[in-house]
Design brief:
- The chain has 273 residues and is α/β, with parallel strands linked by helices.
- The protein has three domains: 3-58; 64-75 and 164-272, no CATH class; 101-131, no CATH class.
- The chain contains eight helices and eight strands; from the N terminus they run H-H-H-H-E-E-H-E-E-H-H-E-E-H-E-E.
- Strands 1, 4, 5, 6, 7 and 8 form a six-stranded mixed β-sheet that branches. A two-stranded parallel sheet has the order 2-3.
- It is rod-shaped.
- It starts with a helix and ends with a strand.
- Residues 72-81 have low confidence and may be disordered.
Length: 273
């Protein structure tokens, strides 16, 4: 290398003067600074992406879901209370017909001028009752049978035996989850995926699903149906959990196990922290 070029030459050119620069070492050292800058910039970019992802995840996780379990009676049957019919008024009192009475005064022996009222004829006494006063009326016909009154009672139809093979909506003892209501609520809270609404993009609010199902005489669950669909996967999740549940205690009507339709309300509450 010329002496004039030494002062302006790069240190690598001086070191590799007269050597094979295409071997690789020269190229590696020549581009070292450039590679360091690229590596640093790439590392900083990756760190920024990770930080941004963490912030987004924290924002999304601010929404949380609670589940509210509430039993709902299938029907609030309001039976019209039939007022008892008032008893019929008593028949009017019928006064016995007046019977002809002839006043009879025991005979007294007095003077003719003292007689005030002549005694009744004997023939007339045979046709009338004898009393202390005179009274007009019907002839006395002796003892007669009382009139026969027609009955006023109501004939009730014979009671029909209840059909115990039908589906009951209201019973004396409703069907029950093994362990009662606390165990049923515990089962639903453990098995329901409460994050379903958030995972499907549900905004804050309440999402209630009403599910009906049949409890057979042996406690088997069937015909699980949702009466409504609030969306965001809540309907399918409620049906799924109830379908896979254990057998129930059958409902009882008049001491017999019967088929019962139960209604269940499940509310998903999405709120922001």
């Amino acid at each position: 290398m010329d002496v004039n070029k030494i002062l302006s030459a790069d240190i690598l050119d001086i070191i590799f003067e007269g050597r094979n620069k295409e071997y690789g070492a020269y190229e590696l050292r020549k581009t070292y600074n450039k590679r360091i800058i690229i590596a640093v910039v790439g590392t900083v970019a990756i760190c920024l992406l990770l930080l941004l992802g963490s912030l987004v995840a924290n924002t999304v996780s601010k929404s949380k879901t609670n589940v509210i379990v509430a039993d709902v009676s299938l029907e609030n049957v309001k039976q019209d209370e039939k007022k008892p019919e008032p008893p019929p008024p008593p028949p009017p009192k019928q006064e016995p017909p007046k019977v002809e009475i002839t006043k009879f005064t025991p005979p007294k022996i007095v003077k003719d001028e003292e007689v005030k009222e002549p005694p009744p004829e004997v023939e007339k006494l045979e046709e009338t009752k004898i009393g202390t006063v005179n009274q007009e009326g019907a002839k006395d016909e002796g003892i007669t049978a009382p009139p026969v009154e027609s009955g006023t009672g109501k004939v009730e139809a014979p009671k029909q035996e209840e059909d115990y093979d039908k589906i009951f909506n209201v019973v004396q003892i409703p069907a029950e989850f093994p362990g009662g209501l606390p165990a049923w609520q515990k089962y639903l809270l453990r098995n329901l995926n409460s994050d379903i609404p958030v995972q499907n993009g549900a905004p804050p609010g309440k999402y209630t699903v009403f599910v009906t199902f049949i409890v057979a005489k042996d406690g088997k669950i069937s015909d699980v149906q949702a009466e409504n669909d609030p969306g965001y996967g809540t309907k399918a999740e409620a049906i799924r959990v109830i379908q896979k549940g254990p057998d129930w205690k059958a409902a009882v009507q008049n001491g017999r196990n019967v088929i019962y339709r139960h209604k269940q309300g499940i509310t998903f509450v999405v709120s922001e922290e």
